[in-house]
Amino acid sequence: MAGNPIRFGIVGCAEIARKVARAINSAPNSTVSAVASRSLDKALNFAAVNGLPDTVKVYGGYDQILDDPCVDAVYMPLPTSLHQRWAILAAEKKKHILLEKPTALDVEELDKILDACESNGVQFMDGSMWLHHPRTAKMKEIISDTKLFGHVNYIHSTSTTSGTKQFLEENIRVKPDLDALGALGDLAWYCIGALLWAKDYKLPTQVHALPDVTKNSAGVILSCTASLQWGKSSNETFATIHCSFLSHTSMDIAISGACGSLNVYDFIIPYQETSASFEFTSGAKFAELHIGWNTRPEEVEVVNELPQEALMVAEFARLVGAIKTTGSRPDSKWPQISRKTQLVMDAVKKSIDSDCKPVYL
Amino acid sequence: MAGNPIRFGIVGCAEIARKVARAINSAPNSTVSAVASRSLDKALNFAAVNGLPDTVKVYGGYDQILDDPCVDAVYMPLPTSLHQRWAILAAEKKKHILLEKPTALDVEELDKILDACESNGVQFMDGSMWLHHPRTAKMKEIISDTKLFGHVNYIHSTSTTSGTKQFLEENIRVKPDLDALGALGDLAWYCIGALLWAKDYKLPTQVHALPDVTKNSAGVILSCTASLQWGKSSNETFATIHCSFLSHTSMDIAISGACGSLNVYDFIIPYQETSASFEFTSGAKFAELHIGWNTRPEEVEVVNELPQEALMVAEFARLVGAIKTTGSRPDSKWPQISRKTQLVMDAVKKSIDSDCKPVYL
């Protein structure tokens, strides 16, 4: 593969594209071969600022990059409202698609994108980087250990970031015509993804927005909380999520099992690039007379040789490479994960829109 | 004070009484002078096991200890259903009362107890030890700093403990005739207390049980989740709490401010007796390219010279001492805190009993 890297076109020069461009060039099986923005100047500037070599083609428009036969795959960090149009066109042009989250405005839109990928035989994956960090696999191993951790009873996940005045007025994430889902799409995507990940992608049966929804004057969600329930019996799982553009940075998952607990505080973007940790406790009891604990949370550290975004790109490029070299079908795991995440996000949105009535899946 | 310690009678030899007996004897202004159980044998055994000196009087019944003129104050760790009867009688016998939580089965009962304390001029305090730890004051200082922390937007608190089979079958905390509030009374008491503490004891306007309530066959709550809302505007605070006898030990408070966050994982019983810590982060931003954070949570450690339960006893004994020596009125702060906690707990209960309908306060 090293001699035949997957050639990426970057469709849209959003801030996040800088991080992913670097990841594409640091993954062992991929390379940036073209960049497109709505204007040529923006694309040229992106190439210059990010030190991309002169061999990288620069386009002032998205159509041209999709017509470039030297582009195998696209990374697409466009505003959500543009995903359907450009992702479908990319699929039709036989470009494999790494699409930023949220993948679409709703699951109907996403289904059109996924159908286009399916019928054109191209790989789809969304840009949830954290799923590719080896820490995530290690956490999964622990919460799946029924003896050590027990049944997962309760999960709480948050994703918050304190938007500046400028962000709250101008950023695409608060504009109804660009990222109409606001904090739900940008932040709760991760929390919902974390719950589904913890539940082995079993869908909740009931989703319930809580009454603290905050919207801006244009009706875009700035902050919300929701509960998710799997089944009705006490043997199932309950979860709460909270996302906000109005609160200090947090990205937590707290998983509460029958005999263990796991906490991670930087699950979306680890504190540092080269290693990440989480806290795990099992069998905690109180000391004699209840004057302390018999144990403290253990910090489990996981070293990663490549940053999680490069691991994501490498996994995507591996799947694309397999399709290119063996003619195999695209892998269905990643599009299914995206679709379930979008489906649950839709349910939260629907509950918000119906005055917090429960939505059954 | 050292020469004239407040003389405690322990009314009920529950397991927790061992911890508090030790605290009473280690606080500088109090001493255990009598112990009562339903049977003399139990009381004698308690005195022996806990190394109480022969000067401590031992009673096989609660009436006698309340008639002992050498008892200034009682510590009462009886099952909740017995609180009303014995706490009122204690107040009538002019005994100051340190009452275990939950203080009563509902606020009507508690009001009768508080009225009895008021009309008999005796001090009331509930057994929430954590409020007396110096860490709690330090946390309060930080979350009150509007520049460092900003407005408190969201709070999440949990209190869980994994009951053994025996606990779930036999413990008084799951018996409808003894502690009918189950996990709500035993565990959520702390979470509700934490929210009220963080909100300077301003009551929420809306309380909402979430649909994951689990009860045992006798109808006692084993696990539940609730949301609490202060006001309707985005300038107010939203909170979620979760309590359970079915999940591994946790006792967390996560407070999310506009520009800071605070996390504590052992707020009810600190990991160790002599110091306790919490995590605090302010102004967290992502590093260039969003490949890490500019800061990590700071661990703030607070050393305590006495265990929190001894600090609780010392504060209670100080108030009792002031009443005894100066004839002052009982302090109203602590009964008010108990009453608000009970009031919110009642609201959660009411919401659970009405199929999760919101309860307005």
Please, could you describe this protein's structure?
Two copies of one chain form a homodimer. The first copy, chain A, is of the alpha/beta class and 361 residues long. The first copy, chain A, has two domains: 6-128, Rossmann fold; 131-307 and 343-360, Dihydrodipicolinate Reductase, domain 2, CATH 3.30.360.10. Chain A has ten helices and 16 strands. In chain A, strands 7, 8, 9, 10, 11, 12, 13, 14, 15 and 16 form a ten-stranded mixed beta sheet that branches. In chain A, helix 4 (83-92) packs parallel to helix 5 and helix 5 (107-120) packs antiparallel against helix 10. The longest helix of chain A is centred in the C-terminal third of the chain and has 21 residues, at 333-353. Chains A and B meet through helix 1, strand 7, strand 10, strand 11 and strand 12 of A and helix 1, strand 7, strand 10, strand 11 and strand 12 of B.
Question: Quick summary of this structure?
Answer:
The structure is a homodimer of 361-residue chains. With 361 residues, chain A is an alpha/beta fold. Helices cover 35% and strands 26% of the residues of chain A.
